[in-house]
What we know:
This protein is low in regular secondary structure and 97 residues long. It has one helix spanning 17-21; strands spanning 49-51, 75-77. A two-stranded parallel sheet has the order 1-2. The radius of gyration is 12 Å and the shape is globular.
Amino acid sequence: MPTQIYFGLHNSSNVPTDRVASLLSIEYLDVSQCTNLAQLCRYCYNLESVNCGDWDMRNVDSMLWLFEGCNKLKEVDVRNWDTSKCKEQIDSFIKQI
């Protein structure tokens, strides 16, 4: 069972940039078994709004750079997130200028 998933660019990624840029929605993603969401949507340039308030985040212990570089992102719904186990949250929502 995977404990980490990602769509964005990360240190060892070979994902073509056009695929990352074309990601528009992730709201139905099931992260309930994940412990590491670091770099999940890093540099997913076309994300503008993410309705992920119903994600089951109770097992996540890292969300480093979760939405880093998503410069069009204006709204992220995190209303029901339980991040009490999360120890790493550095730059989860930082934009790149």
